[in-house]
Design brief:
Layout lengths: L1 H4 L4 H11 L10 E5 L7 H16 L4 E5 L11 H10 L8 E4 L5 H11 L7 E6 L1 H13 L4 E6 L13 H4 L10 H29 L4
Helix pairs in contact: 2-6, 2-8, 3-4, 6-8
C-alpha cells in the first residue's frame, strides 16, 4: 500500500496540509518561536534556523524565542546556542533573542514559554518548525491558552529535476525505464513522507490521549 501511494501525490498533500493548516500569517507577531530539532548542525535544525532568520528579517522589531532543552554546563557548547549562532550569523541582532531551555517536548516547551511571557495569552506568536510538526505545535500552544498563533513551516525547496537528465532524455529521444525520475527519486521521497506522516499521526494521537491538545 505504501509503495502504491508513493506513486501518487497523496503523501505530499498530507505533508503539506500538516504544515499549512491554520498557520497563515495574518498580523505582525510579538514573538517568533523557533522550535528546536535534533542536534546542531542537522538538516531540521538548520532549516528552522533559515526560516527563523527570514521571518526575523521581515518582522524587524519582533523578539525570537529559541526553544530547545540544554543541559550543557557551558551554554555556548549547547545545541540551543548553536541555533542562536546560526540565526545570528544571518544578520539577526543578538539582543532580540530569548532562550527556553527547560521544556522536554512540545507541550512542556509551550508551557515554559507561557511562563516566560508572564501568562500573557494575548501575545501574537509566529511558530517556526518543520512542516509535519506545525499542526500539532499550533494545537499545543492553543491548549496552553495562547489565542493568536500563526506558523512558518520550514519546507525544503526542490531543485529542477531536469538537471538529473541527459540532453537526449530531456528531449525525450531516450526512454529508459531505469532512468525514470519517478523510480529514481520521487517514489523514495514520497515513501519518506509517508513514514514522517505516520510518526506524526501517532504523536498527535498520543498528545490527545494525554490532554496536550
Amino acid at each position: 500500500m505504501m509503495i502504491i501511494l508513493s506513486f501518487t501525490d497523496y503523501p505530499y498533500l498530507v505533508y503539506h496540509w500538516l504544515g499549512t493548516h491554520n498557520s497563515e500569517i495574518t498580523e505582525t507577531p510579538d514573538y517568533i518561536i523557533v522550535m528546536g530539532a535534533g542536534g546542531m548542525p542537522g538538516p531540521e535544525g538548520l532549516m528552522r534556523c533559515h526560516y527563523a532568520a527570514i521571518s526575523a528579517d521581515e518582522f524587524k522589531e519582533t523578539k525570537l524565542i529559541v526553544a530547545l532543552p540544554s543541559e550543557e554546563e557551558n551554554f555556548e557548547d549547547s545545541d540551543t546556542y548553536n541555533m542562536f549562532k546560526e540565526i545570528n550569523l544571518k544578520g539577526i541582532d543578538s539582543t532580540r533573542f530569548i532562550f527556553e531551555t527547560e521544556g522536554t517536548n512540545t507541550y512542556f516547551q509551550a508551557m515554559e514559554i507561557y511562563k516566560l511571557l508572564h501568562n500573557e495569552i494575548n501575545k501574537k506568536l509566529l511558530i517556526v518548525t518543520s512542516p509535519e510538526h506545525m499542526h500539532r505545535c499550533i494545537l499545543t500552544f492553543k491548549k496552553c491558552g495562547f489565542e493568536s498563533i500563526s506558523g512558518y513551516p520550514s519546507f525544503e525547496h526542490s531543485y529542477d529535476e531536469n538537471l538529473l537528465l541527459t540532453k537526449d532524455e530531456r528531449s525525450k529521444k531516450v526512454q529508459d525505464v531505469n532512468r525514470n525520475l519517478n523510480l529514481r527519486y520521487n517514489m523514495w521521497t514520497y515513501l519518506k513522507y509517508e513514514i514522517i506522516i505516520m510518526r506524526e499521526l501517532i504523536a498527535i494521537g498520543w498528545y490527545k490521549l494525554n490532554g496536550y491538545i
